[in-house]
């Protein structure tokens, strides 16, 4: 499980880091590129959560909480992407 924990941490940090790095870019297309990378890292993290649950490392409550937070984060990121795509800035 140590390897999965390390990968989960890396993916979780990558989600936030790519949002921050993208927001510092000067144009919208680069920002969107980093947001899509962030979505990919979130998908990877969600995979590891499911994998950990399948191996019995998470109890039902922890799994449900993590899954819900992952879904909420995904919706928020998708909303941000839609907003940036529609904005003229």
From TrEMBL:
<dbReference type="Pfam" id="PF05635">
    <property type="entry name" value="23S_rRNA_IVP"/>
</dbReference>
<dbReference type="InterPro" id="IPR012657">
    <property type="entry name" value="23S_rRNA-intervening_sequence"/>
</dbReference>
<protein>
    <submittedName>
        <fullName>Four helix bundle protein</fullName>
    </submittedName>
</protein>
<dbReference type="InterPro" id="IPR036583">
    <property type="entry name" value="23S_rRNA_IVS_sf"/>
</dbReference>
